[in-house]
Design goal:
single chain, alpha+beta, Alpha-D-Glucose-1,6-Bisphosphate, Chain A, domain 4, seven-stranded antiparallel beta sheet, 8 helices, 7 strands, about 50% helix
């Protein structure tokens, strides 16, 4: 039993370490890791090699082979967290396409084995044109602007709600429900402070003691609308909070602008919060899902807080 464990453990350990080394080299060389080519291509190659070096005479059968494949790769992902190569947010975002890639790599390896046994060339005649068409047909994704909108109805007059939006001071932790984004390491908001300057109004947003960004006010209509452009100056976030591969204002991701719209419902108010974000990852619908995941989470936190405070004040 011990010898069988060693026969399985040593190849698994070598593969995990090898994958971490290759990934570290890719990061050092500034390879574009936030791309469909890398998120699917790197794990596909890894999946091929994981099955190629599966210990002979052990882990027989499709289920055990898939378990070996997925187990080694997930262990490497955990290793990237432990060694600091990746942050929790990046791993959470990347895990699905990378698992699909590693499974595809395993499938390619099984296909490769069939190719070796295909003496008549029938399999090659079918798969080579299909693979060529897939590669030629891969779409080139253009940068996208996503508009994320959420709304809430507050049982208070529109002027009372509007007055609550400019500054939201001293937000206690128990006023904010812990949501999925917080579990991934995003801090809870602690204050929003309105400031009048010579160049116009600015609202300072604070998340904990480590995050401070600005909302440069671009439109202000009493009891109707507040709009702003986001500004993330140098040092706006403490080291270690922002994931290096999904940096705000970086090559792949940015937060552009936002606005509140208020609608008078005759004694109550509909409050609409909108944020516009930029994405250059090329991941299409998958990237759009994560934009909505994080910003709808944040919107609902703010809208619920405004509703609770406003209704409690009247």
């Amino acid at each position: 039993m011990m010898s069988k464990f060693i026969r399985v453990f040593i190849p698994a350990f070598v593969l995990i370490v090898g994958m971490l080394v290759v990934y570290a080299i890719a990061i050092a060389l500034k390879v574009e890791t936030v791309s469909a080519a890398f998120l699917l291509g790197f794990p596909a190659i890894a999946g091929f090699l994981i099955l190629r070096f599966k210990p002979k005479g052990t882990l027989k059968g499709v289920v055990k082979s898939v378990g070996w494949l997925v187990g080694v790769f997930l262990s490497a992902l955990v290793g990237s967290l432990v060694t600091g190569q990746e942050g929790l947010i990046c791993v959470a975002v990347a895990v699905v396409p990378m698992l699909l890639g590693v499974l595809a790599g395993g499938f390619i390896y099984m296909l490769f084995l069939r190719w070796k046994d295909d003496t008549k060339g029938a399999l090659k005649a079918v798969t080579i044109p299909v693979l060529a068409l897939l590669l030629v047909g891969l779409p080139s994704k253009e940068p996208q602007i996503y508009t994320i909108t959420n709304e809430i109805v507050i049982s208070a007059p529109v002027d009372v709600v509007f007055g609550m939006l400019k500054s939201i001071p001293d937000i206690a932790p128990d006023e904010i429900q812990t949501r999925a984004s917080h579990l991934l390491g995003v801090p809870k908001p602690t204050a929003a402070v309105w400031e009048e300057t010579q160049d116009g109004a600015v609202r300072h947003s604070f998340w904990g003691g480590d995050v401070h960004f600005r909302e440069m006010i671009t439109a202000f209509e009493q009891n109707k609308r507040i709009a702003w452009d986001f500004a993330f100056p140098e040092g706006w976030v403490a080291d270690g909070i922002e994931d290096p591969h999904v940096k705000v204002g970086g090559r792949y991701f940015n937060v552009i602008s936002g606005e509140y719209i208020l609608e008078d419902l005759g004694g109550s108010t509909r409050l609409v919060l909108t944020t516009r974000t930029y994405d250059n990852s090329g991941l299409g619908v998958y990237a759009e899902f994560w934009h909505h995941f994080f910003f709808e989470d944040f919107h609902e936190v703010i809208l619920d807080l405004v509703k609770m405070r406003t209704e409690a004040s009247i």
